[in-house]
Write a structure and sequence with these properties.
binds coenzyme A, seven-stranded mixed β-sheet, 5 helices, Aminopeptidase, 160 residues, 7 strands, 25% strand, alpha+beta
Length: 160
């Protein structure tokens, strides 16, 4: 599969997508990540999460996930939606897929009356920082121990 061959469709996620997602996260992130993607996110936030699948690739089995976004409309911050995780198959990066997943989520957030989207990442994830800057997020300084001792983070925020 190459970027040129890729024609994908983006649909709302379903709880059953968890198994396909958890199977690829370590490979896509290049480090152990399964501990950050629990089944609860698909069970409870599937209706605000999205999955991209190849539409007509001869080299890829129909139904294979090539990208996903897990997000939700914050119960505690009524103006805010939050993106927990986004991932794109390494072979189809830089084709606009993550940007398309974000646009779907932004539309969902606007429909839910939200005016702001937030996310965080690890400071070592320079790809994530570059991507979020490119799609209009402001990026914080590195925040020491944001997620507890040893877990520094940078935060992202974008007005809708
Ligand atoms: C970060 C990630 C989701 C981006 O997905 P993607 O589909 O390649 O992103 P897009 O094609 O929509 O990129 C949009 C823009 O973001 C910027 N960008 C994306 N990846 C970049 C990179 N590796 N380096 C620099 N800029 C980058 C570019 O400006 C890009 O536009 P361009 O290709 O026209 O220059 C993908 O690299 C990924 O899955 N990484 C591993 C998982 C991860 O770290 N997720 C984020 C933290 S939860």
């Amino acid at each position: 599969m190459t970027t040129e061959e890729l024609d994908y469709t983006i649909r709302q996620a379903a709880p059953g997508d968890y198994d396909a997602i958890i199977a690829v996260v370590d490979e896509w992130w290049g480090r152990p990540m399964t501990g950050a993607v629990q089944r609860l996110f698909l069970d409870h936030f599937f209706d605000t999460s999205f999955v991209a699948e190849p539409a007509n690739s001869s080299n890829q089995a129909p139904g294979s996930v090539v990208g996903f976004l897990i997000g939700f409309h914050s119960p505690g911050q009524p103006d805010t939606s939050y993106i927990h995780f986004v991932g794109v198959h390494p072979e189809v990066r830089r084709s606009g897929l993550a940007g398309a997943l974000y646009e779907r989520f932004f539309a969902s957030a606007r429909s839910a009356g939200r005016s702001r989207v937030r996310a965080i990442t690890s400071p070592i994830n320079s790809r994530s920082v570059a991507f979020h800057q490119a799609v209009g997020f402001t990026v914080s300084e590195r925040i020491s121990a944001y997620d507890g001792p040893g877990n520094d983070r940078v935060t992202f925020e974008r007005e809708l």
